[in-house]
């Protein structure tokens, strides 16, 4: 079995890793997105002329809000924010603060020109004919409604008074057409806006809670970190005790249930069947424990050895921070590129006509030449207004494909960051296992050395494994998208087929993650390419399939117990603290709007911290297990081929060491 550069098996390297596959992160769509994209289209609202509101060094620099001439034509807030409302839109310096109509303004113009001076700021620039009769909302809005800016758009100032929807404490308003209307005509928009505003109010209260309790939250997370660290260190001594206590407790519970059911046996024959089933389960579990007792002892010994390895290489516990930073960079890259892609369209103008029979309605137009066409003659009052950002070119037609490619690269990079962490940790822990005398032979800075080997020699292999996983994940995303689109269909066969595909690809993703994880361990040990490492890891695991199953279940149980202990214990402590139930800290406890805000933050944060620590531990145990299996197959305990396993594993296996070897710590 050859050993390549980048391995930790021996200091005698023979050849460099050959993978031949290097990730290409820059592609044509990224270049196109960054060239054509314009994030200002997201930051600034756009008026009917395609101009940004509030953009510096433009005529709209001081006009930061978007005003809608006739907001009644806008169906919902979603239309206002994401799509175009079929009414003229204008950038204004401030939103209206009163009810007014164009007709009322004309009636008072001769006596009070201040009415017009206020009203004209919501008319098109250059319009100075207040005596002109408006047939439709063209140059000026027929009415204005008290509004307030939200998301840089002027929304009606809705409020509720005694359970009644009002606008500026009024329930009716004039629509500028001689009619008095009720504010409930805006109910569709009002419901959505009020929900958003209510959410905004709740958000402000949550922000206040965070502002007053952030230091206590940090203390709680620090306690979670200390408890997680102590749990991992104590596993060296308590792994076996915790496991057998749980098993004995489970057996005692089953026996007690059997006794209770026997007491009820005379009541119903159903309980008799339950007794039989429970007894069968009990006998099966006892036989399994007897049959697998040595393998369980090996699993517990490996868990204890993992705790010992982490104790010697404490820096590995903080490596998840690097993975977190890399994933954060990937998310930022994806988000920025997605914004550039979504804003890479050109402004599209369409004919807006009030006449339903106008054949030119909704057709694209050119605002510079629109007035010279015959459209204004055939459709009286038609306007060429900004509709949306898009285009008819090749690039704009395939924006969706580019967004899909962006999502694929995002998945690829995230999986690569995770793979890099797994390979780095595996290399560090493998260097611990293959040290003949522990800890004397453990190399200096094993984590840093392993990270350097992974970057220098194994990027191609890690990228290839990440690519396979990213392809499967992208297919799963597409299947979820299809499932969402076909939810309303009545074709039962289609739904069944889609459900089967989703299930199959979910299983495939889990399998590939399992293979990749163990392949990265073999890459870190031997320095071979991905395919060879995956094949060797798979067959090695198959030759030790029972040990794999036992170790996996024992590890899962102990880590689940640890996460429950950390998150639950710190969560209970935080609950008593934030609800003023600890007399010693009553004066220090902050006054909160929602005590569950910091409580949930502490619980979720504690779980994530525990997950970060325990993921390192799980990687350590998996690495030591593969090294242990390799040690058994490659060595026989002779002087020429001594075992590298710990003394406790020697005793469990009942193998004698034929070569002199110092006791391992």
Automatic annotation (TrEMBL):
<keyword id="KW-1003">Cell membrane</keyword>
<comment type="function">
    <text>Choline transporter.</text>
</comment>
<comment type="function">
    <text>Choline/H+ antiporter.</text>
</comment>
<dbReference type="Pfam" id="PF04515">
    <property type="entry name" value="Choline_transpo"/>
</dbReference>
<dbReference type="InterPro" id="IPR007603">
    <property type="entry name" value="Choline_transptr-like"/>
</dbReference>
<protein>
    <recommendedName>
        <fullName>Choline transporter-like protein</fullName>
    </recommendedName>
</protein>
<feature type="transmembrane region" description="Helical">
    <location>
        <begin position="455"/>
        <end position="479"/>
    </location>
</feature>
<keyword id="KW-0050">Antiport</keyword>
<feature type="transmembrane region" description="Helical">
    <location>
        <begin position="557"/>
        <end position="582"/>
    </location>
</feature>
<keyword id="KW-0813">Transport</keyword>
<feature type="transmembrane region" description="Helical">
    <location>
        <begin position="216"/>
        <end position="249"/>
    </location>
</feature>
<dbReference type="GO" id="GO:0005886">
    <property type="term" value="C:plasma membrane"/>
</dbReference>
<feature type="transmembrane region" description="Helical">
    <location>
        <begin position="594"/>
        <end position="614"/>
    </location>
</feature>
<feature type="transmembrane region" description="Helical">
    <location>
        <begin position="261"/>
        <end position="292"/>
    </location>
</feature>
<comment type="similarity">
    <text>Belongs to the CTL (choline transporter-like) family.</text>
</comment>
<keyword id="KW-1133">Transmembrane helix</keyword>
<feature type="transmembrane region" description="Helical">
    <location>
        <begin position="312"/>
        <end position="336"/>
    </location>
</feature>
<dbReference type="GO" id="GO:0015297">
    <property type="term" value="F:antiporter activity"/>
</dbReference>
<keyword id="KW-0812">Transmembrane</keyword>
<feature type="transmembrane region" description="Helical">
    <location>
        <begin position="407"/>
        <end position="435"/>
    </location>
</feature>
<keyword id="KW-0472">Membrane</keyword>
<keyword id="KW-0325">Glycoprotein</keyword>
